[in-house]
Design goal:
With 129 residues, the protein is an alpha+beta fold. The chain has a domain of 41 residues. It is built from 1 helix and 5 strands, in the order E-E-E-E-E-H. The chain has a 5-stranded antiparallel sheet with strand order 1-2-3-4-5. A hairpin with a 5-residue loop joins strand 1 and strand 2. The termini are far apart. The mean pLDDT is 75.
């Protein structure tokens, strides 16, 4: 047998023979045990919090999906620019190495031409005598 008990002016509860609350506010309640103490928690009391948490999770997931969809091309463009910049840095290093080598080659070739001119002068002076 169930009976209805007036808790206060606005609350009515349906109670079973052992005094356990079955319905409160007309909404089923959950038997919640914490640290061995059994408590009856009305579902209606926490329903707005549960709904808001669920909606927050849904909107967070939607934001993540939108970021992935709409930001991926932008990130790909920036990633491409970064790759170009890094490639440019590598190219600059290679260019510097090549420039050093070409400067060295130019110097050696200039020295070779000088020594060749000096040899020609010496040989020319030697022939004229």
């Amino acid at each position: 047998m169930y009976k209805y008990v007036q808790i206060d002016e606005t609350e009515v509860a349906k109670v079973d023979e052992n005094g356990n609350i079955i319905y409160q506010y007309g909404v089923p309640v959950i038997d919640y045990t914490y640290m061995g103490v059994s408590m009856w928690i009305p579902l209606a009391k926490y329903l707005p919090n549960i709904i808001s948490i669920c909606l927050s999770i849904v909107f967070l997931l939607a934001d993540c999906i939108c970021l992935i969809i709409f930001a991926r091309p932008y990130l790909a463009i920036n990633y491409g620019k970064l790759q170009e910049e890094f490639a440019g840095i590598k190219d600059n290093k290679e260019k510097r190495k090549q420039q050093k080598l070409s400067n060295k080659m130019q110097r050696l070739s200039d020295e070779y031409l000088k020594t060749q001119d000096e040899l020609n002068k010496l040989n020319g002076e030697g022939k004229s005598e």
